[in-house]
Amino acid sequence: MVLGGQLRRLREASGISRDQAGYSIRGSGSKISRIELGRVGFKERDIADLLTLYGVSDPAERQTFLDMVKQSNQPGWWHRYSDVLPGWFTDYVGLEESTSRIQTYEVQFVPGLLQTERYARAVTTRGLPEATAEEIDRRVVLRMQRQKLLTSSGGPKLWAVLDESVLRRPIGGTDVLREQIKHLLEVTALKNVSLQIVPFEFGGSAAESAFSILRFAEPELPDIVYLEHLCGALYLDKPDEVEMYSKAAHRLAVEARTPEASRGMLSTLLKAL
């Protein structure tokens, strides 16, 4: 991600479009977009050609970039699960590892980073009825591994907004939901985790479907909006698109109960189960 962001900064400073940069490496503007977002492996030849195009001629500076190529191409821990991890979601897990703040809105399920093992298993089994028991196990283990990010040193801040219906849908049964709500009460005690609930009377009118916004500490990296659908996912980084979702996130925060009031709702829901 950092390498891609620096390449983007160099390109923009040179006044070169993505299409022009793509042509110089025998590719397209979309390939440059994937390179700059860290969504594709880096080739030394491509990076060397881009550095030349962007006017980077100092040997030491060029070598620094090429050394970063080697580091960036080292597979992340999540690649061990590539047999059950679709390519479009592999990109997300990699971005998730680099983010400093995650904003997410969910209308159907508890966010993956906040799910219990049993809830995750119920969601996965329901969504992939043809998957083998081993595949389900590996997907659940992967999700549990991802959650370590929240308690790691320098981990991101997570701000989640849930439609109330998420917490009334007994996926896996009442016992699973009860355990899940208890877990939400525990995890929202973390300083870097905030949860707000949109009650039925508002219905999440600010947004019709789930989305996440990933923000990064490095100023050269753009915010990214992640939208998942049945066949894959979309990654949006155009400023006007990101701004639209940022405004929606703000409206949702206004519609939703405060984090403190949301914890009260969780306690009330738990007592009713």
What does this structure look like?
- By secondary structure, this protein is of the alpha/beta class.
- It folds into 2 domains: 2-72, 434 Repressor (Amino-terminal Domain) (Orthogonal Bundle), CATH 1.10.260; 77-272, Endonuclease, Chain A, CATH 3.30.870.
- It contains 11 helices and 6 strands.
- The protein has helices spanning 2-14, 18-24, 29-36, 44-53, 59-72, 87-98, 117-127, 133-147, 174-187, 239-255, 259-272; strands at residues 101-106, 157-163, 193-198, 211-215, 224-229, 232-236.
- It has a 6-stranded mixed beta sheet with strand order 3-2-1-4-5-6, with helices on both faces.
- The relative contact order is 0.12.
Architecture blueprint of SSEs:
Layout: H1 2-14, H2 18-24, H3 29-36, H4 44-53, H5 59-72, H6 87-98, E1 101-106, H7 117-127, H8 133-147, E2 157-163, H9 174-187, E3 193-198, E4 211-215, E5 224-229, E6 232-236, H10 239-255, H11 259-272
Parallel strand pairs: 1-2, 2-3
Antiparallel strand pairs: 1-4, 4-5, 5-6
Offer a concise description of the structure.
By secondary structure, the chain is an alpha/beta fold. It has eleven helices and six strands.
- Note the run of SSEs as H and E: HHHHHHEHHEHEEEEHH
Structural class: alpha/beta
Task: Give the strand order of the largest sheet, numbering strands 1, 2, ... along the chain.
Answer: 3-2-1-4-5-6
Count of DSSP-assigned helices: 11
**Ends: how far apart?**
44 Å
CATH architecture verdict of the largest domain: 2-Layer Sandwich
Q: Point out poorly predicted stretches.
A: none
The percent range for helix content is: 40-55%
The Rg value, from CA coordinates, equals 21 Å
Overall geometric form: elongated
Q: Strand content of the residues, in percent?
A: 5-15%
Find the count of extended strands (DSSP E, 2+ residues): 6
